[in-house]
Amino acid sequence: MSDLPPYPPLDPTTYDLIIVGTGVSESILSAAASSSGTSVLHLDPNPFYGSHSASLSLPDLTSFLHSNSLSPPPPPPSDTPDFLSVDLATRSLYSSVEIATFDSSILDERHSRKFNVDLCGPRVLFCADESINLMLKSGSNNYVEFKSVDASFVGDSSGELRSVPDSRAAIFKDKSLGLMEKKQLMKFFKLVQAHLAAAAASSTESDEGAVKIAEEDMESPFVDFLAKMPLPPKIKSIILYGIAMVDYDQDNVEACGDLLKTREGIARLALYITSIGRFSNALGALIYPIYGQGELPQAFCRRAAVKGCIYVLRMPITALLLDKASELIETGGYKGVRLATGQEIFSQKLILDPCITVGSESMSSLTDQQKETLRVLVPKSISSEGKIARGICIIRGSVKADISNALVVYPPKSLFPEQLAAIRVLQLGSGLAVCPADMHVLYFSTVCENDDQGKAALLSAMSTLIKPQVPENLQSDSAVENDTAEAAKPVVLWRALYVQAMVKGEFGGSISSAASPDGNLSYNELVESAVKLYEQLMGSEELFKEETSPDNTTEEENDGGVEIEA
Amino acid sequence: MHGRPRKAYKPEEEAASAAKAAKLRGLQSQFMANHHNKIYTKEAVDLSTKLLEINPEAYTAWNYRKLAVEDKLSGIESDPDLVKTILDEELRVVESALKQNFKSYGAWHHRKWVLSKGNSSVGNELRLLDNFQKLDTRNFHAWNYRRFVVELTKRSEQDELEYTDDMIGSDFSNYSAWHNRSVLLSSLLARKADGFLPNKKIPDEYKLVQNAIFTDEDDQSGWFYHLWLLDQTVNVETPLLTSSWPSHSSRISLYAGCSKGSFSKLTTFGSESGSFPLVLYFDQAVGGVSSSTVTIDSELKGNEDLVWEPVSKKNSQVSCVWVARLKYISSEPCFGKEYKVKVRVGNSPGIVSSRGCNFSASYEFVFTAHVHDTVEESSQDGIVSWKDGFDIWDAESKDLNALATLDRSNAQMDSKWRQEAIAEEIDLFRELPDSKIGKLTLARLLMAKAMISDDAVKGVHYNEILELYKDLMALDSSHYQYYKDEHSVALLRKVTSSTEDLSGHLFRCRNMNNSVCLRLNNLSLSRIASVEKLLFVQMLDLSHNELHSTEGLEAMQLLSCLNLSHNRIRSFSSLDSLRHLKQLRVLDVSHNHIGEHSVDTTRYLCSSPLSNSEWPQDEVGSQMPSLVTKYWDAYFVLRDLNLKQLDITGNVIAGDEFSSFVLQVAPKLVWLDGKKLEI
Hints:
The complex is a heterodimer. Chain A is of the alpha+beta class.
């Protein structure tokens, strides 16, 4: 990365929009802006697409996490006469990075090319979620293929994994629910479906006889509504954490960071229900892109490139150029950026990767108006915005026999009494081209208040699913035979633990900041914030509106237009 | 496919469809010309291919192809490769036709026909089927064909059972899969394949179907399967003897001549013919009852080769009820003596159920017949009145116990697992109290329990069953009559479940020389049941009920007086079963609806079975042909009866014309509508 080949100077040097960073948010914005005719220059300091949403080989992932990759650029040349130059700094999104290799052969040449490991895992797409809709709308679906996540489970400290009874067929086949529980759960699903149908009908015509959930219930906490149904605690927990994918313990109102209202709970169930069966090739609600989540930002970038966006990778920017004439309040004084090559590029607007900031020492000399222009780049106290502990394990074997791609959720308190939030685990296999054939990649995440708490939670989930690590030289077949339950567990070959700070996207007039990956399983909130940012930038223009061409609609009729490998 | 709303055609689609039709008509007429001229050239066959690929429903084209194939094969039978090529082409055409419409009867049938030739490999067929069954999991054509292929390939039934597991697992609203499962299990259980014993497998099936029912009680497929399972649990394949008259170890008194009405004792019987009926009641219709399969060991002379007759519709050789007439007055005087009669049923094989199962366990019963020489003549020609004069029956219950029916089905069934399975189901379905189907299933289960459990606990459930059916009648008016009928069955089972219950309905008829009468009046019965326990009845009051028909009464071979007044009988055809009652002398069908709804003759080619058939004209028929044609249904019933008293008032049909007709058809009649006839 250090030996940058010399770049020819960029031409043209003026754009409507410059975007730095190729994460999911930035890529959506770039594709949307390009397809509406905006001229866009899309830069990334890294030699790969995706930024914090990238899928990388193990060494690249390691070095990205350690260096945060956006290393400070070489010292800037002196101020140009026309502009005020403000140096940029990089803040670290990652902390407590801890990487361990238990089987060094994993880093061998023959393996290294076969890994595509996500930085922002565990993450999947719901077949009916906004990211899929956006891909269909933009046409970026042509560049990605998906596969179904075969199963989802709810686990506890016993190590047992129970399937999430998320559909009629799954409830029928479930072995752990009693008959009355099955009846109650199905009855609840039917109520939700009737409510959704009634809601859909009433948007076109008023249908008074339809079954709907009462308005006062919609505003009550979802957990209370479930109890009122009445659903037993076991089923409540499955719905809240296994289907609605809630993070915090809903039964503990004081400590709960995200007490879910019934309205939102029903919306999440609706997403899940409509995801099942949206595409005939998909087995369940969840799909995952072949070659990793990094494919998603790349697909949007390709779409942007088709629409005329110019891409330059391995191109950090070192400084912002502001108008010296600070009385020009309307433009906020922003003029352009200085690239690491020293070239100055100009644009109306700028969107920056969430880890690009302005150092406080650079701020001190600025006028109030200049400070206002740079408002979104001033680092706020990161802790207030939440942290996500993430873990990656490369394992030999599978956490569940005969199943390769699976989601496991540990609801709050299921692993240990102090467990504050749900821990989600996603196992992916070589069928998704993310690892060699005999291995699986496991992603772990949980929201947390501090690094230690988050990592402790992930380690607890790891020890439940995976055999404790044995030093490499002792690892022989004879050593593990005494306990069959333990012996059946997979072996960990490589592990990464890190805590990621969550930065929300922010609109700041001419300079905006894109959102970092969040703690959710899906891209829904990220897409939502990208769409909002786009509307603010472009003045509430609809994303990809001209893309609904005739050939696109025929595609929709086939299979909804998303390639899902059976 | 299911659940796809039909869309109205757009103009351009309509135009396309018209163009397609025009093209099709052209092909069709060309094809028909080929067919009629028996042209089987390549071009002609290709034309039929084209036609079928557009319209797989053109069954004439399939038949034409069969002829064409036969034609081609007749020339080259020696060359197996060529034969295979020809047949493979047929398979290909079928496959592309099925892609067009996988519910085409003709296409599936053609495929069967090709495979039956035996020259094609069947290996591909299951793979092809998997594709079709993925497209539409319930497609019964595919399932049908699957059974055909499975038989051809000798694929094991266990494997197929597993396939139904998968199909049901992915969507349990699949009637076809459940149905196939029941077919496979029936077969596996019948031949007792590897571990396929009912007491092992049926409980597992209950578990499976419970999951379907409790997951979605609104889905019908599971309930159907549950009903099938219940049937497997309750019914035994092998036929059993349920009851008989006379019953085992009973003592009957026989008189010469007939006391009109009945006797003061339940066990007394008299007849002019000097014979008494011996009645066998089986739990299912059987055939093959004869003097070789049922042997009689008795000192009563002249009964060596008894004639056994099925009590059933004409020409049917199977029936639940079989009757033979034993003579007790023969040339030798035998009065004042007691005779032991030993009956062995199923002594030699031959009694077979309509499903083909043998009556295997032979059974023997013995009774004593006391033959008296006096006839109770006191009320010989008096009118039988149902109005009043009934006293509570005071007989000691041992008298009734002697009538107790065999009730020995338990002994032969491995009933323990059945009782357990049903008890478990009952507990479970008590938890589904709010659905109609839940209530109905619970009622059926309780009834099943009553049928296979011990006498002692029976009565407890009947009230619950009756309540359930009452609820259902109120809840689900569209199936009211079904529930009503089931309610009647349950009520009659309750009445006949114990001697105490039954004796509450037995009365002495004061005006009738204290003869015993079973009164089941005013019970709002709509159906007759439990007749097997009432074989002894000679006088029966069913008035003020809601009966539509007398079906079931044919088993009561001793019946001589029957009151059906104030019911819902609509025609004499509904009384058809009475023709089997040779002892019937008194019949009251007053205040019914006979004649109210005349047969709408415009809807039939002939107004009566007599109008164009060459029925043997008997005396009455030739005397009054127009009345016989008009009252043909009454004619058929009354002609075979030997009535002395008939009450018909209060029916639309009643009137002078009908009365005069009756007098001709029933010449032995003494009382008509309460008036003594002048002879």
